Amino acid sequence: MRFMVIVKASKDSEAGALPSTKLLAEMGKYNEELVKAGVMQAGEGLQASSKGARVKFAGDKRTVTDGPFAETKELIAGFWIWKCASLPEAIDWVKRCPNPMQGESEIEIRQIFDADDFGAAFTPELREQEERIRAQIERQQKK
To answer: The whole model's pTM is what?
Structure first.
């Protein structure tokens, strides 16, 4: 199973406060443990929402709203993609994580859909298309 592990934003991260050298070192060590265990597939920190935008869909209409966004508790400061045998395993890994923010913080864990989760709606043609797209991405990342 794959999981997206979401580091929630804080007032500090939204203000553009960068992590300390100590926290960067602790996170680096933690990420190395994840990689050695074969868990971590990707992971990145995100800039503050003031440097982002949202696109709202209503039928054919698209409305763009530039950041920053008001509800800090709904924002994401970073993420990992992990491969774990189960949700409890992912939870165990998160419990070992250094606190990613000064003060209180929160990390959310969400399972990523696999092709089989879509059932019959994900036809053989759509599966082939998905495989082609993933192969293209891999080739591009190797460049």
So the answer is: 0.89
